[in-house]
């Protein structure tokens, strides 16, 4: 009788898993060059495409940088401030706050938003905690698209698989700078290391059994045919950035060759360009000579000395201002954010009007990114509790107002709504509309509870004192002041 020993899925990859890993790795490597190019423009490290016309070969190594892509992207990201998570029904949200604080999400969220704007997408991976205790909060980590990709089902609008390639964790015995793969599947998460045979060796399997891939994609500028997302650093932004850098480089070249006025001398003899020993002076020594002692020629004529007009960079600065205005329209920022200024300063109303388009763009990003954070938080509750959260309970994300209105305008509008009876004065919504942050609203609510408890406690003490006085045969304060025949 022959006994066959089946392959253990714990230590080997199945054929389907291996094919899935190869497919996802190819997808990630295909997009990496474009992502690195966008990152280079954001960091000011791109190589300017020289046209080979106005830049001499000696200055081809000169690198000019203009940080308009970074300024435009950061200007939008600075309006995306995640403040809190809460239940839409108004119930206690301390469980959500505990998960958010354990993962430092309010600081990590700004990094995730910045990557989503630069690369066009960001990933949120959810897993069990690493502290080793039963009450360990779930782990939510923001992952760069440089190291992660995802397979998406457009019909179901959910992920079917995801892959992350990163440096091997410290707890795994591996070689220096060894890479590690993490395959996210609907029923398990598989971690692999390179094997000696050239394949992949499974080092751990987390059989979570969720039925969904615990990865959320936070996409920017999606379209129906493109759910992956697009970067804010568009080809138009790259082109204008290159043109502006070439103008700056042209100004540097002009400063080298034409910054100092060129002089000319007509009718001078050769001795005018020689020192006392008869040696020819260098061009620089001749140029910096403030006083040129020139002799008359054989006919008694004095040489003519003059200079050409110095180079005027005004033409190039006007071109750069034009590029700044074009870039402002592409990045939806006010021109003064990119350094463009006119002779007539803009009024406060004009500045707010110029910010309207970026405010609307920030509101759209808040809706899109907020859905991703809500889905990640629901996955974290699922991992923690072992069962999916109740679908009837909706999670809300609290964001700071991207329009940044003045405090006086916010408070004035809120007071008018309270006076009209639209909002109750003690509502949390009223405090939110007045511009208070989530921690400030929590402190105000705590102060109100203490004040209410103190008032309730004082009234109870008065009633107890009245009962004691009645038992002692003394008239109470209620009897003295409460009746018509008290006096």
Approximate helicity band = 40-55%
Strand-and-helix sequence, N→C?
HHEHHEEEEEEEEHEHEHHHEHHHH
- Beta-strand portion reads 5-15%
Which spans have pLDDT < 50 for at least 5 consecutive residues?
474-487
Strand order of the largest sheet: 4-5-6-7-8
Provide mean pLDDT, rounded. Answer: 79
Number of H- or I-type helical stretches: 13
Q: Quick one: overall form?
A: flat
The major sheet is characterized as: 5 strands, antiparallel
Cα distance spanning the termini: 112 Å
Class from helix and strand fractions: alpha+beta
What features would you describe in this structure?
This protein is an alpha+beta fold and 487 residues long. The protein is built from 13 helices and twelve strands. It has helices at 15-43, 68-77, 94-102, 105-119, 235-258, 283-288, 314-331, 348-354, 356-385, 407-419, 428-433, 438-471, 477-482; strands spanning 82-87, 121-127, 139-143, 148-153, 158-167, 179-184, 189-194, 200-206, 215-219, 263-266, 304-307, 395-399. A five-stranded antiparallel β-sheet has the order 4-5-6-7-8, with helices on one face. Helix 2 runs parallel beside helix 7 and helix 5 runs antiparallel to helix 7 (314-331). The longest helix has 34 residues, at 438-471. It is flat and about 125 Å long.
